[in-house]
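In the design runs reported in the main text, the only information available to the sequence generator was the tokenized backbone. The following block is the verbatim input for one such run; it is reproduced so that readers can re-run the procedure and compare outputs position by position.
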């Protein structure tokens, strides 16, 4: 199993103590990220179960050691995004944390032992406020939008507004009509887009969406954690350099942190 470039207590201490006058992002593998701005720490889709079958990359730390989470955002109910072992463990260790999820996911989350009072359910075009920051939801198509009157959209992406910066985490999904129109008003600085698997963006589609919405930075995710999601990341780099030379991008290693450039 491949080991992260940073992990364990060292990485957790870095996340907790790092001064973040600009937003800082750590990749936890797959679609998992830790986001920090000033004193706000937000986890998105943390997949930290070490025993998950077929896993190729070791988790950077144990879920039960995460005692500093403020919010955990889960984009949908699939176990690679709402980890049935990791999520309850994080909530147990981070006693004040709550988990944001699509409305239709609440019953499933409760069946995993997550109390309803620890949940914040949301839907497209709604806003969650956390400290001085705002989190908006937009639908994701995986591979369809699958909207229902009672459940809303079961697959969401999140726009995390940190000061004057906006980070878009797409969850799982493919492009659909008017997605760029939905995203453009938020002035996305960093777009975290899934490129691994047959129900996610192709490399050209990810680059095209980043260009459509004017994202300053494109970050690929959801690749190389499992064999079915394997991507030759060199193809991503080559495509961006050859077809979109003005598009800035960041390719993470698992456990690596990166601050959004402010210039």
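Verbatim output:
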């Amino acid at each position: 199993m491949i080991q992260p470039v940073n992990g364990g207590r060292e990485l957790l201490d870095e996340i907790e103590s790092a001064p973040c006058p600009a937003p800082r992002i750590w990749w936890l593998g797959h679609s998992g990220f830790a986001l920090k701005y000033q004193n706000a720490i937000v986890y998105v889709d943390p997949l930290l179960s070490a025993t998950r079958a077929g896993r190729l990359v070791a988790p950077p730390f144990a879920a039960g050691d995460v005692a500093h989470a403020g919010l955990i955002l889960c984009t949908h109910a699939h176990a690679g995004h709402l980890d049935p072992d990791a999520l309850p463990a994080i909530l147990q260790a981070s006693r004040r944390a709550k988990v944001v999820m699509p409305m239709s996911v609440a019953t499933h989350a409760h069946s995993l032992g997550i109390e309803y009072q620890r949940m914040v359910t949301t839907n497209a075009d709604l806003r969650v406020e956390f400290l001085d920051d705002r989190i908006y939801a937009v639908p994701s198509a995986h591979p369809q939008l699958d909207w229902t009157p009672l459940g809303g959209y079961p697959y969401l992406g999140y726009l995390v507004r940190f000061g004057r910066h906006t980070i878009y985490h797409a969850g799982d999904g493919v492009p659909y009509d008017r997605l760029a129109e939905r995203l453009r008003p938020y002035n996305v600085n960093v777009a975290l887009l899934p490129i691994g698997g047959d129900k996610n963006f192709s490399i050209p589609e990810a680059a095209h969406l980043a260009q459509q919405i004017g994202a300053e930075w494109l970050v690929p995710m959801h690749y190389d954690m499992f064999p079915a999601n394997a991507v030759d990341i060199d193809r991503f780099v080559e495509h961006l350099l050859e077809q979109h030379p003005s598009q800035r991008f960041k390719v993470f290693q698992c456990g690596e942190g990166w601050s959004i450039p402010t210039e």
